[in-house]
């Protein structure tokens, strides 16, 4: 058993409840504010675009939220996801560290995103909603919601960030295979999109813009709700099934992580793995928690902790988060799922409380780490996940220098099978590190809402 590679749980051990970190935070999360009045929002303010069950989860401080049986039945298609000991990578790095990764690429859509897409589609179906609108960056969330919509008979309309729409045609094809409609954002179909195109006809788009378009569509139709793939509390909640499984699997391995690592864009896969371990850290565990983000969109390492809008069109509630400013346009990169101007309020709050660390890497060094991982472990990672791999490799090499046999657990949030053009560009030397525009950041931060 000392050479075990995969730690697998049986289907009857799929967690029966999601974990809500809000119950254990030593300081409560600052409340969201209405975009028009600046007042604390209530459930009624969210009712036009979200189902009741999702709204209740968004504001809940209950520690455990039961997973509905129909959702657990769908989860059985790929959950429990494997925990894998990266023995070949350990050997390649010649490190005394032990490396484990939770592999979420086994889902039908190839990433962690169905963990929240399925319950969101289920709760909307319960309320008689027949259409869902959403945004997507790299396409992982859009394809996941398309998959979930196909299971529950819900029409799905996806606004995909234009630069990713052009870079990742197979993600579009996957959404269409599941029956969804995929639209390049900004588009001429919404006022938010038309406003952006009037200012910049060649706009590459951003998640903030795509969110504005999707929210506008949902708010204008009674048969349509909005679904979000990251950032909000209920999304982070649904993803904690990752960390709850990992805790059980690390016990099977007879080990406990000294370091937990995940990439951070909006915060969902980080929250999924890390929040259950942050619970243990609050209780006194010495585990280090590290979030890794792109240097081209460094919300945690260079953003300001302040109230801001979740979208460029300023249609969404204001939340307190680490932000680059809702008008900030991140440069185009192949980690489209991490190109968001803000960080999940709960992840941002955790950072402010000193319960996690953050670091930023350039995309070329992340792709180099991804290739190193693939050549050892055989799995081609999503560009987003490569940031976590780079962080894990750096920690393993530190352990080598220091002669420390620490245990490192990271989240491999998805595979890169639809991202091979990015790898082709990397190997041909065409992939560059986008320049971060400090003056654009300064302007965007100067436009933050004035909240007393």
TrEMBL record:
Enzyme class (EC, first level): lyase
PANTHER family assigned: TRYPTOPHAN SYNTHASE (PTHR48077:SF6), TRYPTOPHAN SYNTHASE-RELATED (PTHR48077)
Keywords attached to this entry: Amino-acid biosynthesis, Aromatic amino acid biosynthesis, Lyase, Pyridoxal phosphate, Tryptophan biosynthesis
Species this chain originates from: Magnetospirillum molischianum DSM 120
Domain of life (superkingdom): Bacteria
GO molecular function, one term: pyridoxal phosphate binding
Function text: The beta subunit is responsible for the synthesis of L-tryptophan from indole and L-serine.
Pathway, per record: Amino-acid biosynthesis; L-tryptophan biosynthesis; L-tryptophan from chorismate: step 5/5
Positions in coiled-coil regions: none
Tryptophan synthase beta chain-like PALP domain location: 77-414
Quaternary structure annotation from Swiss-Prot or TrEMBL: Tetramer of two alpha and two beta chains.
Protein name: Tryptophan synthase beta chain
EC assignment: 4.2.1.20
């Amino acid at each position: 058993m000392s050479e075990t590679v995969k730690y697998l749980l049986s289907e009857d051990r799929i967690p029966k409840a999601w974990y809500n970190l809000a119950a254990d935070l030593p300081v409560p999360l600052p409340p969201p504010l209405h975009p028009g009045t600046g007042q604390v929002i209530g459930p009624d303010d969210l009712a036009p675009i979200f189902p009741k069950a999702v709204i209740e989860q968004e504001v809940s401080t209950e520690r455990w939220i039961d997973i509905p049986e129909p959702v657990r039945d769908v989860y059985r298609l790929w959950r429990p996801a494997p925990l894998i000991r990266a023995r070949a990578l350990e050997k390649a790095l010649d490190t005394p560290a032990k490396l484990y990764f939770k592999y979420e690429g086994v889902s039908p859509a190839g990433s962690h995103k169905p963990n929240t897409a399925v319950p969101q589609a289920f709760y909307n179906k319960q309320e008689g909603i027949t259409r869902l609108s959403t945004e997507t960056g790299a396409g992982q969330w859009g394809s996941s919601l398309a998959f979930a919509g196909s299971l529950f008979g819900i029409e799905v309309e996806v606004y995909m960030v234009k630069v990713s729409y052009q870079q990742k045609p197979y993600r579009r094809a996957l959404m269409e295979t599941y029956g969804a409609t995929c639209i390049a954002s900004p588009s001429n179909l919404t006022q938010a999109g038309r406003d952006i195109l009037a200012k910049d006809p060649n706009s590459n788009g951003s998640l903030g813009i795509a969110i504005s378009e999707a929210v506008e569509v949902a708010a204008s139709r009674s048969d349509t709700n909005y679904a979000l793939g990251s950032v909000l509390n209920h999304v982070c909640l649904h993803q904690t099934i990752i960390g709850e499984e990992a805790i059980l699997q690390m016990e099977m391995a007879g080990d406990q992580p000294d370091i937990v690592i995940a990439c951070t864009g909006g915060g969902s896969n980080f929250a999924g793995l890390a929040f259950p371990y942050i619970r243990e850290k609050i209780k006194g565990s010495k585990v280090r928690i590290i979030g890794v983000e792109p240097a081209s969109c460094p919300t945690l390492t260079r953003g300001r902790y302040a109230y801001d809008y979740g979208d460029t069109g300023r249609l969404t509630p204001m939340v307190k988060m680490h932000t680059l400013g809702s008008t900030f346009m991140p440069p185009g990169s192949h980690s489209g799922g991490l190109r968001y101007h803000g960080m999940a309020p709960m992840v941002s709050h955790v950072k402010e409380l000193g319960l996690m660390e953050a670091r930023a890497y350039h995309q070329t060094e992340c792709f180099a780490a991804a290739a190193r991982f693939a050549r050892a472990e055989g799995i081609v990672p999503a560009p987003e996940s490569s940031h976590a791999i780079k962080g894990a490799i750096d920690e393993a090499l530190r352990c080598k220098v220091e002669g420390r046999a620490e245990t490192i657990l990271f989240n491999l949030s998805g595979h890169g099978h639809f991202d091979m053009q990015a790898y082709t560009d990397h190997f041909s030397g065409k992939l560059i590190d986008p320049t971060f525009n400090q003056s654009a950041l300064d302007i965007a931060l100067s436009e933050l809402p004035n909240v007393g």
